[in-house]
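hey
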């Protein structure tokens, strides 16, 4: 099939997926698709050339991408214990609303805390979607939700930097999603963004990165042929408990996904995967109630635990050891402990007087979570 041309079945599914979208959401999808179609021929040639140099089959590539378009899974990560704009926890909001809300509604972000009019996220979206979400008919709730494409069966999800827990969405949701290789905040992100039927625009820069020996998705020795095998399996996790699986720790490498339209927990979600730090925690009961109300399985991944003494003084230009010591006086970090400390910034802001600016403290908490993802031991093998 020529790039940017849809089969009859894919056109039908895509049309059905977009039936419930608002005009601004449909406009955003069509803006991205039109731009990607213009780049598809060059991207397709770049893919063919990279596969040829790697000794990988173009026919196999076409087979894999066709399968991916039918079975793509998206994960939406979240920190269930964090306090949203209304004062309740994310888990409480999910249970009450029955929907996954975007950053402009919740006031929360595990990336840039700039989801407001005139903020950086607002500017990135204006560029990425051609101003589709900046008209009078585009209220904050209409904005996209951010996730990542499932490429490998990592039990901690494809982008754990964005949350300790995640929803796995049903494949048909991908028909109303846009995809970016890397983060949409990065320079040139619009040139690496596409729809499900124009994925060459996303995969060409990914293959260039693999060819340069830089790897991807925290998978050792990943090359073009191995990537095709991962994508061809349309990765899914086994049923039941996931605590026995090796953590992926894919902190910095992912295909970002922007989901347009509502994400209803009952209907759009097929699974909820959670950090076991919340299993015997009040949030755990909320997660179980969310899964039950949505009619989906709740699974537990291995989790992350880390002794405070193992936390570096500085991580990516921000001090994190002092924060770890404050968050975990007993000497052991996990997702629930980090989250409880982060929440004090909301309900005990005076206790942080003189520590740093609010934005810097939020960044320090994000960096501390990243350290936990990269260095933490599975909960079943907690450090002493």
């Amino acid at each position: 099939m020529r790039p940017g041309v849809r089969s009859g079945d894919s056109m039908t599914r895509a049309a059905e997926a977009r039936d419930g979208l608002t005009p601004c959401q449909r406009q955003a999808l069509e803006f991205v698709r039109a731009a990607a179609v213009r780049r598809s021929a060059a991207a397709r040639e770049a893919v063919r050339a990279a596969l040829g140099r790697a000794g990988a089959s173009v026919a196999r590539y076409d087979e894999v991408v066709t399968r991916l378009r039918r079975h793509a899974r998206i994960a939406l990560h979240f920190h269930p214990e964090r306090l949203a704009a209304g004062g309740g926890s994310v888990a409480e909001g999910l249970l009450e609303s029955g929907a996954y809300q975007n950053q402009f509604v919740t006031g929360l972000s595990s990336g840039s805390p700039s989801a407001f009019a005139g903020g950086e996220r607002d500017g990135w979206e204006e560029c990425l979607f051609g101003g589709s979400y900046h008209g009078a008919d585009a209220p904050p709730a209409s904005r996209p939700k951010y996730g990542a494409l499932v490429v490998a069966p990592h039990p901690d999800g494809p982008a754990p930097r964005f949350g300790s827990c995640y929803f796995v969405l049903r494949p048909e949701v991908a028909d109303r999603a846009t995809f970016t290789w890397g983060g949409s905040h990065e320079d040139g992100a619009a040139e690496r963004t596409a729809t499900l039927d124009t994925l060459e625009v996303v995969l060409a820069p990914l293959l260039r990165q693999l060819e340069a020996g830089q790897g991807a998705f925290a998978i050792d020795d990943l090359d073009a042929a191995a990537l095709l095998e991962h994508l061809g399996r349309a990765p899914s996790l086994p049923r039941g408990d996931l605590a026995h699986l090796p953590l992926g720790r894919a902190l910095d490498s992912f295909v970002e996904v922007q989901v347009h339209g509502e994400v209803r927990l009952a209907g759009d979600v097929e699974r909820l995967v959670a950090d076991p730090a919340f299993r015997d925690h009040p949030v755990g009961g909320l997660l179980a109630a969310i899964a039950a109300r949505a009619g989906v399985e709740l699974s537990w991944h291995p989790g992350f635990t880390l002794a405070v003494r193992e936390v570096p003084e500085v991580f990516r230009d921000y001090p994190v050891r002092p924060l770890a010591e404050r968050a975990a006086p007993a000497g052991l970090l996990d997702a629930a402990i980090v989250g409880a400390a982060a929440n004090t910034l909301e309900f005990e802001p005076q206790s942080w007087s003189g520590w740093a600016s609010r934005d810097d403290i939020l960044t320090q908490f994000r960096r501390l979570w990243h350290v936990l993802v990269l260095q933490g031991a599975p909960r079943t093998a907690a450090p002493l």
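The longest strand covers residues 269-274. Residues 311 and 342 are 17 Å apart (CA to CA).
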